[in-house]
Amino acid sequence: MLFKNLRVYRLDPAWALDAAQLSKLLEQHQFQPGTSQDPLSLGWIEPRAGHGLVYQNNEQILLCMRSEKKLLPSTVINQVACAKATEIAEEQGYKPGRKQMQEIKEQVITELMPRAFSVARDTQVWIDPVNRWLCVDAAAASVGDEVMGLLAKTINPFPVLPLYTETSPGGAMTSWLLEDEAPANFTIDQDTELRSTTENRALVKYVRHSAEPEELGRHIQAGKQCTRLAMTWADRISFVLTDALDVKRVVPLDILTEKQDVTAVNDDEIFDADMTLMTAELAKMISDLVEALGGER
Question: In sequence order, which ranges of 93-240 are alpha helices (DSSP H)?
């Protein structure tokens, strides 16, 4: 069990649901495949087959949302719509106007939807009631929004609060680069992205390359701010921090994987051991990261 990305939220202090209560709520929004006309279907599935909709281990909770989307490329829609528009133009003696063209496209989408391919994607949600974190394994903001939307339908009152820090991630990362000094318990790695705050949005990237402080200083003085920074926490986990406080490309390092429980004898025990190790380490990393950003606001 390993999250590749972390969209971090605060769990409401009033959270008091146990696994049985949460499972009953999830059952009301369990995933059901969409009909031929449903472009998107969302619902909860078992995080681990045969273990129910709520997987709990040492007070840590794992959920999983499935989304099923119909793939209908815009090029196909436009081609079919253009062909229909040509036929209609011949019948009525003039080209369809903007409003009529929109109606044609909507009709084409309805006709093609039953033949569209369905693509399913599973997104894990980790709930840490002990440290009050809720994390979504999603690289894209749109996926995180889907999870938050389904959570809002499932649990009332909504149990999630935004996470704000005293120092903005972009400002903090820029300062770390300018001072050539990482916060306590962290090191700065080679991948860096700086973007201009002016209208031209000029972008500079360093990939597997460490830039000299003087060079970075010139970019920052020219009005650029750090928007992505590769870091390592406690020699255990490497990741990329963004200016939106998203944690991406999470990778456990050798020193952490060596701590895995070698006494586990079956898949369930291995999964539990991995979950125990990773949730404990990630919870510490998030706390240290928030502290490095000046604490919560």
Answer: 98-112, 141-154, 169-179, 213-221
Q: Rounded to an integer, what distance in angstroms lies between the CA atom of residue 53 and that of residue 34?
A: 19
Phi, psi (5° rounding) for residue 238? Answer: -100, 150
Closest C-alpha among 251, 249, 232, 276 to residue 130: 276
Quick one: tokens of 117? 């391919």
The two tokens of residue 169 are 């991630």
For residue range 160-182, list pLDDT tens digits in order.
999 999 999 999 999 999 888 99
Q: How many residues does the chain have?
A: 297
Looking at residue 182, the DSSP 8-state letter turns out to be: P
- Do residues 232 and 240 lie in contact, with contact meaning Cβ atoms separated by under 8 Å? no
Helices (H) and strands (E) counted in the chain, each on its own, are 8, 12
Kindly state the helix (H) or strand (E) to which residue 40 belongs, with its residue range.
Answer: strand 40-45
Q: What are phi and psi of 126, to 5 degrees?
A: -110, 125
> How far apart are alpha carbons 48 and 51 in whole angstroms?
6
User: Residue 229 — φ and ψ, nearest 5°?
Assistant: -145, 125
- Residues 36 and 118: their CA atoms lie apart, in Å, by 10
Paired strand residues for 85: none
Query: What does pTM read for this prediction?
Result: 0.83
